Amino acid sequence: MQLNVRKTVEMLTNWSEPIRRRVAAGQLKVVPAIYRVESGEVEFLDQTSGA
Q1: Can you give the three-state secondary structure of 1-51, one letter per residue?
Q2: Which end of the chain offers a freer environment for a tag, N or C, measured as fewer CB atoms within 10 Å?
Q3: In sequence order, what are the residues at sequence separation of 6 or more whose Cβ sits closer than 8 angstroms to the Cβ of residue 43?
């Protein structure tokens, strides 16, 4: 599941010019996280490490 989240973040920042521009300008941050429907908890993933 973590790998899927990380790949999605990578795709968003690589394939979307508007997102890439805003990230580069410091106007937007894409944060990898997993939402657990059962508990309502959000697990934020470390952006520097792999899955």
Answers
A1: CHHHHHHHHHHHHHHCHHHHHHHHCCCCCCCCEEEECCCCEEEECCCCCCC
A2: N
A3: 33, 34, 36
Q: Could you tell me if residue 17 is left (phi over 0), alpha (psi between -120 and 50 degrees) or otherwise beta?
A: alpha
In this prediction the pTM is 0.68
CA distances for 25 relative to 6, 8, 17, 28, 29, angstroms:
21, 21, 12, 8, 10
| Burial zone of 50 (CB within 10 Å; 0-12 exposed, 13-18 middle, 19+ buried) | exposed
Q: Among 15, 48, 16, which Cα is nearest to 32's?
A: 48
